[in-house]
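Example (one chain per record):
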Amino acid sequence: MTAHAKRAEQTGDPSPSYIDAPTRSVTVGGTAFAYRDLGPRSGVPLLLLNHWGAVLDNFDPRIVDGLARTRRVIAIDYRGIGASGGTAPVTIASMRWRGM
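Predicted structure:
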């Protein structure tokens, strides 16, 4: 059990820390994207974009947990990176949404 899970058990705080948040998947335009979602469900969510080639585990959990105390935070793996499906684009132009 992680330190956050122990603290949550003691305080009754049900929100998981970033390292305890489940990795989920959503399919968009035929491509499955891996993401983690935590924090309150009210307000405008904060979408975390990582550096190229980085995966969900490269985000610093202490920073994400701090952000998620007051807002919803969604971190994603890019197309073809980490647990996301598809092929990773090799140019900035090819990173755009294909529906545009």
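Caption: The mean pLDDT is 85.
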